[in-house]
Structure formats: C-alpha cells, structure tokens
C-alpha cells in the first residue's frame, strides 16, 4: 500500500511521513512548498511539488505512484488570517479538497484520512468535548475544516471509500529539532520568542471562568498525533467502508499560566508573564474527550507537556542559539 501525504513537507505532515515510514508504509509527499520545507522530506521519499487545486497533476500522481490511500494535511491553518482572507481559505481548504477528492474518486483510491481541527467546535460549553458536541466554528478556518469533513464523509458514502476525519487539539513538540514548527503562531513558540527577545511572555486575559483565570487547552505531542494517523490509516486499510470522526487530544486541560510556568522551568528562564487584554474569539476551555479514539483505534497519547516543551525548545535553540538562558 502506498500513501500520498499532502502537506508532507509541513510541520505536522513531516511527522506523519516519519511515523508512516517507521510503520513500514510506503509514502509519497505532495506539497506546494508554500510553507512546507523540501528538506523535511526524508531521502528516498518522492516529493511531488504541486497544489491541491491542480487536478491534472494530482491524477497523474495518484496513478503514476500507484497510490492506494491519501492522508490530506495540505491546508491553510491560521485563524486570524482566515478572518482577513476568507475567500483564500475557502479556495485552498475547501476547493482544494474537492479537486483532490475528485481525483481520488476517479483513481478509485480506497482510503482517505482528513486533517481536521478542534476549531470545528468553536466555543464548546462543555467540560470535555466529545465528537457529538455540536460544531459551531467561530472562524472561516474552522468553517473550512467542518465543510471539509462534510465533503469527505459525503464522498466516502457515495463511493464506498473508507474515511477518517481527525480533529487535532493543540499540537506542540517535535520528534527531532530539525522537524520543529518554524511558525510563531501558537502559545509555545510565542513564549519562546518573548524569552529570546528579553521580553515578558504574554497572557491574553486572566479573567476567564477557569481555576486560575487563564484559558485552558488540551496540548498534544506531534509524535502522538502522527501515530494516531498511522493507526487510522491501518484501520481504513483493514476495514473497507469505515467512516470515523475522532478527536486527537489527551483529555487533560492545561492553563496558559501553567504552560508558561513549565516553559520557564524547562528552559532555565524565570520570566514573569504580563497579563494583557483577552484575544478576540478565544474560548475559555477546550479539552478533548479522547475516549472514542481509544476505543476505535486503541490509540492513547504517550507524551506529556514536559516532552512537548523540551522537544520544541530544542528545535527553537537550533534556529535561535542566542536564546540559551545564562
Ligand atoms: C489553536 C489553533 C486553532 C486550533 C486550536 C485547536 C492557531 C492560531 N490556532 O488555537 O486553529 O483549532 O488550536 O487545535 O493555530 N496565548 C497567550 N499568550 C500568547 C499566545 C497564546 O495567552 O502569547 C493563549 C491564547 O489566548 C489561548 C492559548 O494561549 O488561550 C492557546 O493559544 P494558541 O496556541 O494560539 O492556540 P488556540 O488559540 O487554542
């Protein structure tokens, strides 16, 4: 079986490629290299440079490489940017997916794993978010992920293809320093950046209805997340007609203040955070129930918060050696 990993040169995609190879699956990477990095693709793995909007190249790739399953991660993923550029997000994330599914259907590829997000839930008013919690996305980004799930499921039902929609919670960490996230869009790298710049990490609001007043999230190590893709891919391969929608989280809430405390402790800094205004659109608490994926795939996260922070910090230091605390 050969898997096409779209977005396989990206931060999460490169981890999925690595995990699939470790599980002895054949992979081909398809990436437009807009944010992906060719150097992340391991030697011996074919890299096809192209857009998911290019149906012809996709069809040639699927048939040319004898692809029998797709893991689709190529997408735009910045919430703020999606608010400013909704048409761009719908084109890349929804139209790109439609074109890909059309090529996949024509080539009769039997398995499809879709990278979705906890952003589909919006502001869930529950302690633990289950896959039955209503989906009310709060941003065009979240809308494109929800619409993507609909497209994937509808196509699967119509064609008999096996599908899995994986809803990622807050992803952090790295399998190796060179695979670390290079974007500075999330809490962990944003705190690293402040430490490096001799500035105070920021807490966006401490008046939320949570134990310490700061927002609570469910952080998941990218290595665990990648292994969940392998488990899903194997399940689809083994059970034709499968239609899965699964949260990928640890089921443990960690507050922004707790994260900053651990980052200080693990990096050797002691930089007190400043509390600023709330960031618009941030839910107080988003924590997964990880029960369904445990039951369905036997998958459970193995790495904790310290593993995520330490491995992300090693990657950060590789690119910012000046950040070492004295
Ligand atoms: C992230 C993703 C979102 C995804 C969700 C779950 C982005 C921008 N958002 O959202 O698409 O659906 O995970 O997968 O990629 N914070 C601070 N100070 C900082 C930075 C962040 O207090 O300097 C706070 C935020 O207000 C938030 C928490 O830290 O409460 C986490 O923020 P972030 O890492 O941006 O992720 P989410 O907003 O949860």
TrEMBL record:
List the Gene Ontology MF annotations in alphabetical order.
UDP-glucose 4-epimerase activity
Q: Which reaction does it catalyse?
A: UDP-alpha-D-glucose = UDP-alpha-D-galactose
Q: Which Pfam families match?
A: Epimerase (PF01370)
| Ranges for domain NAD-dependent epimerase/dehydratase | 3-249
Gene Ontology biological-process entries = galactose catabolic process via UDP-galactose, Leloir pathway
User: What cofactor requirement does the entry state?
Assistant: NAD(+)
Q: Mind telling me which InterPro entries this protein's record contains?
A: Epimerase_deHydtase, NAD(P)-bd_dom_sf, UDP_G4E
Q: What is its EC number?
A: 5.1.3.2
Q: In which pathway does it act?
A: Carbohydrate metabolism; galactose metabolism
**Alphabetized UniProt keyword annotations:** Carbohydrate metabolism, Isomerase, NAD
Coiled-coil stretches, from where to where?
none
The entry's family comment says: Belongs to the NAD(P)-dependent epimerase/dehydratase family.
Q: Under which name does UniProt file this protein? A: UDP-glucose 4-epimerase
Tell me the organism.
Streptomyces phyllanthi
